[in-house]
Amino acid sequence: GAQLGRNGRTLRMRWEFRLKPWLLQHFSGTLNLDIRRMLANYLAEHFTDIDSVDWFAVARKPEFVGHTLVSLRTLFFSNLFSKTKKNKGDSSEVTLKDVAEYTNAIGLCKVSEKTLTRQKQIIDYFEQYVKKHGIESFDLYSK
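Predicted structure:
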């Protein structure tokens, strides 16, 4: 991080929450697939409450290929859960059913041109790096 003038924690978070999921999704053919509804419905159908969610099992489901446990939890808590709670407008507990109902009612997510451009730059750089250094196999799922 010091070489880039950035905090190491910030760089690690950028990798885990943004760059790694983009690469995983690109190589699995699911880049920019909006999984919000699928995730919300899966959680509501398979778990009794938020505390019972087995995120390891969720991350292994084929419908969430290209995502990690971290990216799925982040999508759920930072996006779906928080927006549902804000929409609900009261202090009562937000259930998985509430999250699914709210998520199903909202429209699909549109990816901005800026994000699409940045994704292409990151993916192109990664592919060129792999080719230049003769890397034949890599595992983006490992730490």
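Summary: The chain has a mean pLDDT of 91.
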